[in-house]
Amino acid sequence: MSHDVTLDAELREGLTVYPVEHARTLGVDAFFTDRFGGVSLAPYESLNLATHVGDDAAAVAENRRRVEAAAGVHVSTVNQVHGTTVLDAAHLTPLSEADALTYDRDDVALAMLVADCVPLLLVDSASAKFAVVHAGWRGLQAHVIAAALATFTHANSVYAFVGPSISVEAYQVGPEVAVHFEDIPDAVWPDGGDRSRLDLRRVATSQLLDAGVLEDHVERSTQVTDGGDVFFSDRAQRPCGRFALVARRLVA
Description:
Blueprint: E1 3-5, E2 10-12, E3 15-19, H1 21-25, E4 28-33, H2 57-71, E5 74-76, E6 86-88, E7 100-103, E8 108-114, E9 118-124, E10 130-135, H3 137-142, H4 144-149, E11 158-162, E12 172-173, H5 175-178, E13 188-190, E14 196-198, H6 200-210, E15 218-221, E16 243-249
Parallel strand pairs: 1-15, 5-8, 6-7, 11-15
Antiparallel strand pairs: 2-3, 3-4, 4-16, 7-10, 8-16, 9-10, 9-11, 12-14, 13-14
């Protein structure tokens, strides 16, 4: 069965981060940031890592520098567009657009930025390859998880980690969204009238399994973004910042 785990906080270079412990046994150092320890002012306080939400560019640059210090290497990210493009991080440019990045070397860390959407880490136990994925409802509807897994040789050797994201209780959607996920058991909860609650985390887990990831290779964080108190939440506050899933291959 998939496992629910609570990520323990750890202090790195003055930042509180939440490492994915099992990933380290597979040779990948991965962690989630929270909203604290940066220099951004309200409403982005304080460790906003996104350049597209209206925050001061110099503040974002300093926040990213602090995350790089915690990671120990340069951190590469990409312009996320709620699509299914998967890119090898070796070929990134400042204009690249994608919602999944893959890599197999130890000189750069990869990052995906989120504030309610599902951040996923994929680590191959049979090779050096790993990936980070950004999956909101649009990405899930378009099957970005399957697209990312298709770049691995065998999905059944991949371990998946589902990070902090919005809970079903906090995520109300209309019928135009719910209709895409009604075939997934317990993913859509009636919520009065034509409204529903959507369980993005259950959808992500279902799609991981459908794509060939083994059930006991899936871990899900018990932490959620609800309320935006620890992790940024777009549903709780707009505008708001973005936190990150950061991952790098450990030096062999």
